[in-house]
Amino acid sequence: MIPGQESADHGEVRVMLLPTQGRDLLVPASAVAEIVSADAVQPLPDTPEWLLGELQWRGRRVPAVAFASPPEGQGRGRAHARVVVCFMPAGSPALPFVALYSRGMPRLERAAPDNLSTEQDPHPFALSALALGERHAWLPDFTALERALLAAQTSG
């Protein structure tokens, strides 16, 4: 599972399930710093489609990323769209946070190894695809995401 995140409850891990189009994101709850409206994201010119823009958050510029294409328009097309600001595990001074797009309000869940199953559905920023009960989700690969964001910053 996710190293260092097991609880005393039979290996359960507290996770946030972020709804996206088609497949959700499964993020350790301990990685979440704050959830804010997607309206706060300011688009950037000449960036990859997955890089929605930047969020001004607590005096920092935080890149906002979508794992699936969000709708166009204000608030990315939905009144309930959010971005979830997450700590980057590597703790890089250049990129300490990332904001992940969510089509609605994320939900706190408990995941245990016996209720997760691995699936085949590759994504360039996912460690793996999982099923949590009836929900299908990607487990983000924060290292790959960090590399892509740093490359986009240097090319932009």
UniProtKB/TrEMBL annotation:
GO biological-process terms attached to the record: chemotaxis; signal transduction
Chain ranges of the CheW-like domain: 12-151
Organism, as annotated: Marichromatium purpuratum 984
Name of the protein in its database record: CheW-like domain-containing protein
Transmembrane intervals: none
InterPro entries: CheW-like_dom_sf, CheW-lke_dom
Domain of life: Bacteria
